[in-house]
Fold this sequence. Notes:
Elements: E1 3-8, H1 13-27, E2 31-37, H2 45-51, E3 58-59, H3 62-68, E4 73-76, H4 83-92, E5 96-100, H5 107-120, E6 124-127, H6 134-143, E7 151-159, H7 170-174, H8 178-195, E8 199-207, E9 219-226, E10 231-237, E11 251-256, E12 259-264, E13 267-272, E14 288-289, H9 299-311, H10 321-340, E15 344-345, H11 346-358
Helix pairs in contact: 1-2, 1-9, 4-5, 5-10, 5-11, 8-10, 10-11
Amino acid sequence: MPYKMIQVGTGGWGATWCSRWLxxxxxxxxxxxxxxxxxxxxxxxxxxxxLGLRADQCYTDLRKAFDENPADFCTIVAxxxxxxxxxxxxxxxxxxxxxxxxxxxxxEASVRIAAKVKRAGKKMGVTMSHRFDQDKTTLRRELRSGRxxxxxxxxxxxTCDCRKFASWGKFRHEILDALMxxxxxxxxxxxxxxxxxxxDTLYAQTWxxxxxxxAGDSQGLVTMHFGNGTRAMYEGAKTNAVGLNGxxxxxxxxxxxxxxxxxxxxxxxxxAHVAGNAWSAGQAGQGEPLALIDQPKWANAWLIEKxxxxxxxxxxxxxxxxxxxxxxxxxxxxxxxxxxxxxxxVQQLLASARQSQLA
Length: 359
């Protein structure tokens, strides 16, 4: 029997859920969407067209939708500032939750949500879609294969030309720290995952150039030091003259003892170390190409399947809400570091946020 679910958010990215991420899992008999909600009634056409819902299954009133449609879980595909409100209603209706990143718009709210879910005895996953994309998953497998030796450091580049207002979705241009909250939340999470350890220390500089039509910072440079000694550097930009590595086409370089691994525009190459060849120079297209892993589902479609298997009693999602607090802590550590000009101890920041909720 498929799990009955309520889709919260059908406009913007929610439209992609309706057209791309949910249909494969509906077809596989894993989920049945019983209702959809969006504050904009015009966006509900996406639920009718993509999910085949009737007009009476589409709502603009959040509470009414939950009251009238018994379900097993809900999704949350809404701006982060609204996540806690939806979580509260879902838990009041005894539902599990699968939410878009980040958990919430502040670290404190994220910690509260994780605590509420735990007290309620429910399961909550977070869809870190980029980490579970095809190229990143292939790179992760290669790094963990052992054939490249110890990992020394990582570099990630994500650059776009979304300087004009609403070119990255209107709400992102209106929130503070748009790059960190809506972009780097994926990329810092990927770097932490590839490193294989929790981040210890983080230093960041973020800003918005005069030509960036944002309410807050749209550009950023971040350095990270992980508990196992691995280091990472991140370049994120939403207001560049041209996009070199935009969404799903990010550049990641992994410097290992025995090889350099380069992921760029969804291609991965391996450049093996050659002893005695001190002046060797690797060039794009001249390395050993690595075949990408092939499977039916990627990104959120795969994560929905993982969530359902977790509900079935299977393995816990890697991005369960408690573990995903690490990802949220990274972006708010970066925001704090930029504002104070000081490096931030990430685990101390998270511990402090947890303690404040107990006070």
